[in-house]
Design goal:
single chain; alpha+beta; Phosphorylase Kinase, domain 1; D-amino Acid Aminotransferase, Chain A, domain 1; 2 domains; seven-stranded antiparallel sheet; 8 helices; about 25% strand
């Protein structure tokens, strides 16, 4: 957390890895910091402008997909915030006032390509989260159809675990599990089709949902470089890891370059990695939205 974020004197409802949720009474205020996490650890180094990219891109997508499912947004426009919040200039372009939803404790991951933990599982069992896949797929292969591969949502620094659809049903009930699956795949298809038209492959993404007035709504951030894997079409090559426009670049540096053992405390990032990461986040925003950051 930096000093500007420390200066926000509001009741804290929840402190995430890189975002803070403040209690405004009837609503919440979600603030995206410039922090970055990898392998469930928050790194000590900030990535300049990252919080603003996440905020602006999420607002773009919430508007883009609003016909599919309701969401928790009240406003992300700092100029229309209540006067009491306007004294914190730090909040501009990185914070959203949202409805208080009752969160569903499932990470709703949809995959259209084989990468990350999905690729590791496929190599052993030819499955991803117990979903049987065709033989002969390679790393980064496009899947015949997008698949819903949920994971548990853990707190207190525990690792989220991939779970089967049957386990999801056990945790949240059949009706909710089926809705999560159907809506997640619908959202993934709409956004990945659009992203492709902008020269970007949406390999996979994580969504979160909650209940508000007994209706399932979309919450959290959506289709950002923190919650998704973005690849450039022109650089895509099946059979190997891809150069991602997301935080995979930081994970690769930690895992492959300095061979970090993923135990606390996390290491500082060097200046060139910070600059390259900022560049990737801004590039993802500009390519996907067609807007200058």
């Amino acid at each position: 957390m930096n000093n500007q974020e420390n200066s926000v004197n509001l009741p804290l409802a929840h402190k995430g890895k890189v975002r803070s949720v403040y209690d405004l009474g009837q609503n919440y205020l979600i603030v995206a910091s410039d922090g970055i996490s990898a392998f469930d650890c928050v790194l000590p180094t900030l990535i300049p402008s990252k919080g603003k990219v996440l905020h602006k891109l999420s607002m773009f997508w919430f508007d883009f997909v609003q016909g599919i499912v309701p969401n928790h947004i009240i406003t992300g426009d700092f100029d229309s915030f209540p006067a009491g919040l306007k004294r914190y200039e730090y909040l501009r372009d990185r914070s959203t006032i949202v409805k208080k939803a009752d969160r569903v404790d499932i990470e709703c991951i949809t995959r259209g390509y084989l990468a990350g933990s999905g690729w590791k599982e496929y190599q052993k069992f030819q499955t991803v989260c117990d979903v049987k896949l065709p033989a002969g797929l390679k790393e980064s292969s496009k899947l015949p159809e997008p698949i819903f591969t949920p994971s548990s949502k853990e707190e207190g620094g525990k690792h989220d675990e991939n779970i089967s659809f049957e386990e999801t049903v056990k945790r949240v009930g059949k009706e909710t599990a089926e809705s999560l699956q159907k809506i997640s795949i619908k959202l993934y298809k709409k956004v990945s089709e659009y992203a492709l038209s902008r020269g970007i492959i949406l390999a996979d993404t994580k969504l979160e949902f909650g209940f508000y007035d007994d209706r399932l709504i979309l919450i959290d951030e959506i289709f950002t470089p923190d919650s998704s894997r973005f690849w450039e079409v022109e650089k895509y090559e099946e059979g190997k890891p891809q150069d991602s426009l997301d935080k995979q670049y930081v994970r690769d540096y930690l895992e492959n370059t300095i061979k970090w053992d993923k135990s606390s405390p996390a290491p500082e990032l060097p200046k060139d990695v910070v600059e390259k990461t900022t560049e990737k986040y801004i590039s993802a925003y500009e390519k996907l939205t067609g807007r200058k950051f």
